[in-house]
Design goal:
Layout: E1 4-5, E2 9-12, E3 24-29, E4 31-34, E5 37-40, E6 44-46, E7 56-63, E8 69-75, E9 78-83, E10 92-93, E11 98-102, E12 108-110, E13 115-117, E14 130-134, H1 144-147, E15 150-156, E16 160-164, E17 173-175, E18 181-185, H2 191-197, E19 202-207, E20 210-215, E21 220-223, E22 233-234, E23 236-237, E24 253-254, E25 261-266, E26 272-277, E27 289-290, E28 293-294, E29 298-304, E30 322-325, E31 332-337, E32 342-346, E33 349-357, E34 361-369, E35 379-382, E36 385-389, E37 394-397, E38 401-403, H3 409-413, E39 434-438, E40 443-448, E41 458-463, E42 468-473, E43 478-479, E44 482-483, E45 488-490, E46 496-499, E47 510-516, E48 528-534, E49 537-541, E50 546-554, E51 567-571, E52 577-583, E53 585-594, E54 597-601, E55 605-610
Parallel strand pairs: 2-3, 23-24, 39-44
Antiparallel strand pairs: 1-55, 3-47, 4-5, 6-46, 7-8, 8-9, 9-10, 11-18, 12-13, 12-17, 13-16, 14-15, 14-18, 15-16, 19-20, 20-21, 21-22, 25-26, 26-29, 27-28, 29-30, 31-32, 32-33, 33-34, 35-36, 36-37, 37-38, 39-40, 40-41, 41-42, 43-45, 45-46, 47-53, 48-52, 48-55, 49-54, 50-51, 50-53
């Protein structure tokens, strides 16, 4: 028989059996498709030698007010910034990491089995917070050295219930003097805080040279964008009892700002928009807080500030601030801005918010019912087109919502971890899903947690120009939405990686492979013998690298592939390759492990012929 070209259709097919995926590619890792041909993806290298503190959940690039290219990261521990000069990155805090609360006279009560602290503002504390007391004077036989140490908040009542991090105290009643303070650490939440408040997701947006950020279900931060100015601060509502957290000499007073929101964005008139927030006209006191957060958040409420002024949120006749409540769905999951609108993802529908000018300034209309998103970071804007991962399907919106046909959807969605991670708030592991737009290759990448993993460990990718899908394994927790050449993504190790750069996994070999669906003659009623294989591939980088071809064999679709058969490691110029493999079903597998090259597969050919029925 003539040589058979092994010319499989581009993209993976996993919603069929491997036998049904004839003429298609079935599985692979670290391989993409470009111009219809499979090729190994580019390498990656770490940009920071010191890991970020806490898992990164959001990345944002901004040109600072003083002209620097700055990368902002939102992690489980706070906000960080690094000036990007093209060399290594060092992330430093640009978000508040601690704050000080002044205590009243004799604030501490020590009993035989308990420690209580009377504080002026209960809402400034959360269960699990680590606080350090200072300025306490000797009482009850306890020295200042024993009293002025670190404690953990284990309960919030009309007082704080504390536990010593280490050491012990003697029962001594009330005491402590009149000059004590409590310093509350906001870094590295304890398990108790994570269980009550949920994971720490962020939305981050540029506001001119400044940056605004919102911790999901938490306060709004404002950083003036000056790379040397230090920490950001909370936007504080000067007219409310609940001023979020007062950070000493903070200058961030704002009129009518929400105390907490789901996410933030920036409007066409340079207003700052809070999606899913508490009504700022209702004072937030300790009576309507839980774990230090407002439980009166209206998860359908959208509020925006005055144009060009993120510090004025009062809805008055002399400004453009305002409020709208969405009348469909139960809660906002996330919102994303395109050039023509803000698309709001509800739990059961999709809404469009557009700037309409005076007197209402913004209007909200429904786009589609019975559609939602799997998590707050599972959407990517490509111009005015949105691509996103839903709970059980992929979607595109460019004026009309449509599902995107996906031949690996059952494989992906049947294996996503949807378990709850927290008891106090909606916090499924699927909220971990992170998205990246790889501009050079016209790809949308979704990273997701598979099986029982609580961090992203796999990916699924859609090439929206060639309309092909591929899958693989890689641990990435966040990505810069769009980078022209080298996408930046964070790993579970706290490192920021520059992708599509050279050919290695940060200096280690990249293991890449691709495997086809079954091949047979007729309906598999005859055995097939392969006797000669003609490779076809090209290398970038080291053109003397090696690649391994394997013709796998088995005698039935449900049988295991016979190990080690038909495997040949070949150089770039080796051609043809003698082999002898006999079976009812054959499959092609191509693999490599290298640090200095990547390959593109051409049109290899195989000399096969029928070889009887037994």
């Amino acid at each position: 028989m003539p040589l058979k070209p092994l010319d499989f259709k581009p993209g993976f097919v996993r919603d069929e059996t491997q036998y049904r995926a004839k003429e298609s590619w079935w599985d692979g890792n670290n391989v993409r498709f470009r111009n219809g041909r499979p090729e190994m993806i580019g390498g990656w290298v770490a940009r920071n030698s010191t890991a970020m503190i806490g898992a990164c959940r959001a990345l944002h690039r901004n040109i600072s007010a003083d002209g620097f290219n700055v990368v902002i990261s939102g992690t489980e521990s706070g906000l960080y910034q690094a000036i990007d000069t093209g060399a290594g990155l060092t992330f430093i805090s640009c978000g508040p990491t601690s704050y000080v609360v002044n205590l009243g006279a004799n604030p501490m009560l020590i009993g035989g089995s308990y420690i209580r602290l009377i504080v002026p503002d209960l809402f400034k504390f959360s269960v699990g917070d680590t606080i350090t007391l200072s300025g306490l004077t000797t009482f009850g036989g306890n020295s200042t050295g024993a009293l002025n140490v670190a404690y953990v908040v284990i309960g919030i009542f009309s007082y704080l219930s504390l536990a010593l991090v280490s050491g012990s105290l003697a029962a001594g009643g009330y005491g402590g003097g009149s000059s004590a303070t409590a310093t509350v650490s906001m870094v590295n939440r304890t398990a108790a805080v994570k269980a009550s408040l949920g994971s720490r997701y962020w939305s981050i947006a540029s506001y001119g040279g400044a940056v605004v950020a919102c911790e999901r279900n938490g306060p709004i931060y404002y950083w003036d964008g000056n790379s040397s100015s230090g920490n950001s601060f909370y936007l504080r509502n000067a007219s409310s009892v609940y001023n979020n957290v007062l950070l000493g000499t903070v200058v961030g007073n704002a009129n009518g700002v929400p105390s907490a929101a789901i996410c933030v964005g920036v409007g066409e008139d340079r207003s700052l928009i809070a999606f899913g927030c508490n009504d700022p006209s209702i004072p937030q006191t300790a009576a309507n807080l839980i774990y230090g957060r407002p439980f009166s958040i209206n998860r359908r409420l959208v509020t925006w500030s005055d144009a060009e002024n993120p510090f004025d949120w009062d809805d008055r006749e002399d400004n453009t601030a305002g409020t709208l409540e969405i009348q469909s769905g139960i809660e906002i999951i996330t919102a994303v801005s395109t050039r023509r609108e803000h698309v709001i993802f509800m739990d059961s529908c999709l809404m469009s918010m557009k700037y309409i000018g005076a007197p209402d300034y913004y209007g909200i209309d429904k786009i589609a019912d019975n559609v939602t998103i799997i998590g707050p970071n599972a959407v990517m804007a490509v111009g005015d087109t949105l691509f996103w991962m839903g709970p059980n399907n992929f979607y595109v919106y460019n004026g009309v919502v449509q599902p995107v046909p996906c031949p690996v959807s059952r494989y992906v969605f049947s294996n996503i971890n949807r378990a709850q991670l927290s008891s106090g708030i909606q916090d499924p592991a699927a909220y971990r899903v992170a998205t990246c737009h790889n501009v050079e290759y016209n790809e949308i990448w979704w990273f997701y947690p598979s099986g029982s993993s609580t961090e992203n460990d796999r990916y699924v990718v859609y090439n929206y120009l060639e309309k092909v899908w591929f899958i693989g394994a890689m641990a990435r927790t966040a990505a810069l939405p769009t980078e022209a050449t080298y996408p930046l993504m964070t790993g579970t190790d706290g490192k920021l990686y520059k992708h599509e750069y050279l050919y290695s996994d940060n200096g280690s070999p990249i293991s890449a492979f691709i495997e086809s669906g079954d091949m047979d003659i007729g309906e598999g009623d005859h055995f097939t013998t392969a006797t000669r294989f003609i490779p076809d591939h090209a290398f970038s980088g080291n053109t003397s690298a090696f690649i391994t071809y394997q013709i796998k064999r088995r005698d039935a679709p449900m049988a295991a592939w016979e190990a080690g058969t038909g495997k040949k490691t070949v150089a770039a110029t080796e051609n043809p390759v003698d082999t002898r493999v006999r079976g009812r079903e054959l499959a092609l597998r191509v693999a490599s492990s290298t640090t200095d090259a990547k390959w593109t597969l051409g049109r290899p050919r195989l000399d096969i012929q029928p070889d009887g029925k037994k």
